[in-house]
Fold:
Amino acid sequence: MFRSRSKLPTSSHISSYDTYYQPRALEKHADSILALASVFWSISYYSSPFAIFYLYRKGYLSLSKVVPFSHYAGTLLLLLAGVACLRGIGRWTNPQYRQFITILEATHRNQSVENKRQLANYNFDFRSWPVDFHWEEPSSRKGSRGGPSRRGVALLRPEPLHRGTADTFLNRVKKLPCQITSYLVAHTLGRRMLYPGSVYLLQKALMPVLLQGQARLVEECNGRRAKLLACDGNEIDTMFVDRRGTAEPQGQKLVICCEGNAGFYEVGCVSTPLEAGYSVLGWNHPGFAGSTGVPFPQNEANAMDVVVQFAIHRLGFQPQDIVIYAWSIGGFTGTCHTDSFQGPVLLIRRTKDEIITTTVPEDIMSNRGNDLLLKLLQFRYPRVMVEEGLRASIRKGKKLLP
Structure:
């Protein structure tokens, strides 16, 4: 589905439903079948460990049972391939869709201003959107404003060994079972619990709301969507609202919004700086909506790196005119770059929270926001802040001074 914005009604009270692309009967029914198959596949994927265990207990994983099942699966795949072909025929016979494909192919061949302007009138699968900014563009790596490093953010480093200890082969063998278990948990259940917004079923359920939010940003706020390519190959979905041409002085400042673990820029915290009159750059975590990849810590840091590079070298904002506004787990990615750029920081820790505070809500020492605080203090004041000073800052301070 794509949405044409070239014939939008001027009145805000008139519904813009008619501007949505209306597929013909063949494409509509074929697309519904493929969407239903996609949902069933996602459910099967997440429930596969339990299904395999059940089939094993019932003895259905024997060769005599698996061979007929593979025949059924192959037949189903052929039927779905036929349905996909029918959808393609339905799209090809639709003049409106052919016009969209013509503009898309022209933009891929030549990313001129006019082609991008015409392409911005459509909302479609973001995987087909051409890359607007590459992390390795020459202009983004000249001078000292370019960011932390040529390879993105050097975030994950091995823990330093204490004096007098050695990481022997025997110690590594002893740690291996725990490392394998933690890897499996982190890459399966853990990542989806920590970032539920990356789960396909949740995105599918929220898609109508996300489309409405995106349309509001484009139609009412003149937002410009862009695809950024990070150093790890992930494509980051962004939305920029430029207020520099308005009479409001806040428009000269850019607010980069970092959403929470189930937040999207379409319906996230971007509304707060927009209402205050600031220029805003929103982006989605890797694996969220139009962004590709998975939201692992290093991927998050790389995504934030290319977003900041885009703001400085393509949008033209100076580092001192950029505000990083982070909510919930977005504070992690926000802290990655407050280390690299000087300026005041306000860190608000939720004290009465069962997740953020890992022991009792009143114990400030167990608040997970302390890890961000310690990292920031150690980077900015390496010769002033010692261990005792850091501990005292955690106990007494709720605001971090510049």
Summary: The radius of gyration is 25 Å.
